[in-house]
Amino acid sequence: MSWQAYPDNLVATGKIDKAALYSRVGDSLWAQSGGFQLNANEITEIARGFDDPSNLQSHGLHVLQQKYFLLRADDRSIYGKHEAEGIIAVRTKQAILVAHYPSGVVAGEATTIVEKLADYLIGLSY
Q: Does the pTM of the predicted model rise above 0.85?
């Protein structure tokens, strides 16, 4: 399966409207759906936030020049919310999944979908 299938499958669930797959350090975009490509400083901020969330905690999470309120940041998952939409970023052994869910989607449903895909990739040593 190509890398492109992963963001496409997330979008196909109807719970995610944009998704991207980056290298674990955030220095390369492997695949994207919905024209979802973060600025270099935004993906770097997320990649660093897994190991040290202090910057995200003090300044918020930024994706496509939109500031999201940080809900969670640990060594695996980063969640952000802006009004009724949100961002989910999950780090695997070799990659970072970043997904956006739109207004009208329950955050928990979107989060479960992205986390399950991350578990699958981890199971494949990615």
A: yes
